[in-house]
């Protein structure tokens, strides 16, 4: 009997094992961790093409959906590329050799938006591969939406995500107070504290280059398909961007590494595993992809822990790393985990009972949550850390963004004569056809030296001289673009008291006039000494990653501009403040500038500004005048021209390049040919003759007036003579009585 029970038990166990294997091989979702939290609802999104809301531009999409007995209208705008131009994927051969690839990435198909009528809603969807895929949050409820496989009716599956009902609800972040304190102590021990107050920080934009590494188990779970892994990571970063948008943080994806063959580091308990990963990335990965932080995504369980990250370590090449347990099937279920761990990298600690956000639980709650909102505490921690991190203030250039090479993207690329963009744009372009070639008869389609699809004749100015340190350029008649912009050689004297530097004549008095009006001028040196030695946002000689730098006494004139005789306060851009400081009876005026601002700094003393005899400001330091003019001297131009920024002669109007010896019309070998300059002497004589001819009628008129006056005067004289002859006694009588009048005496009255 006992033996029978054992056999029955073994049989049941064997059947259960077979069932598990069958479910695994048939693609059944992994137990618990990969299941959605609700049965899906089938919806058919309806595209809205009207313009009733006034936002239907090519960058916007609108859909109507019926979800959970609600009619929702979503409006989405294309999320400009958050992938760098040099986006790379690193994989390995079966022999362990590294492979670098720059794959095709769909462009302008990731969208961010909102639900109409719900200002707190979030929408992050992708249409890169047909249908809508991503997240939608409204009324504090999170949904995942994705296309239904093999549907001919544009059907989609919508899942309601609620972490409270999943097996992940009891799981938590591995960061403890002890670990946080250890890393905090290490950070504070090696840093200079910033000033505690900083107004307007929330209006600044920050940029984080987040590199991602996918472990072998996650890659195998996605079918060992590199494209699937790539697409999952891109979807993940798209959703992360909308979560971090309220903090004005843009998460940029510079590259991915996939451990497609095997993991280079062994699994361990999470703290030890994080240390191993950080060491691997320091030794191996740091030189592969420039990054501010790196996260590892592993399909491996660490008990009840979801992830671990070094606190406040973003931008630190030793510790800017984190590990995330990614066992969920859904990116939407997992995104709160990586957003949480990235928050730790930004210095955010776990929320305590006093922390609040619009949801019941916030992103930095210690346990798993589906929230997409940060608490007031998280904002405070975030600010305290990011203000110290200069890497987050680096605005990515447009050239760093990924752009797919293709005809019709509006960018002139290799083997294209032109690119007029969309079909609608091409219908309005008379020079360029839709296949990126010039229309018959056209010589050009764009450029400053192209007009009406034809090249502008030689000698036409295409870039005027902008100031005394700039030089003009002219079209050469054979090319549609203006020649390269050149300027006066650095170090050349300008305005009698300064030096040309990078196309500017930098003089303190002129800088003060540009900021504070025509009557302003550079302040007394006392102001520079008093303010620029403080080391705050009003007076400094630059900054490092943690604080403003005080100016040394020798460099005070190269810090921030100080002005006096200010009669007007200028209208400044956002984040710029005028300040006045009393220093030994002097009014010192200046403009502040602080971290995180992407607008130009108008208040720093510009490089090339004179700071003493034969000394200039370079990089906030007062240094001897560099030997700028060794490659080109005025003697080289025979004193008939000046040296340009390419160290070639730019000749005066009567001489020709290259050395201004022979007669010509000016310019240089870099500027394009100037027009022939006609002598103006005959023109001046002609103008003088015309003035003379115009004066003749005026002279005749003046003579006539004089003649008329003479005739009138003569007639008046004749009339007086006639009157004198008719009454001769009356004037004599008057002549006699007049002198006698003063002699009359008035009798005294007593």
Automatic annotation (TrEMBL):
SMART domains, A to Z: ACR, DISIN
Transmembrane segments: 691-712
Composition skew (Polar residues), residue ranges: 723-743
PROSITE patterns: ADAM_MEPRO, DISINTEGRIN_1, DISINTEGRIN_2, EGF_3
Cellular component aspect of the GO annotation: external side of plasma membrane; sperm head plasma membrane
Position of the signal peptide: 1-34
Localisation: Membrane
Disulfide feature: 357-362, 462-482, 651-660
Any one Pfam family match given in the protein's UniProt record, by short name: Pep_M12B_propep
Top-level taxonomic group: Eukaryota
Name of this protein: ADAM metallopeptidase domain 20
The encoding gene: LOC100358067
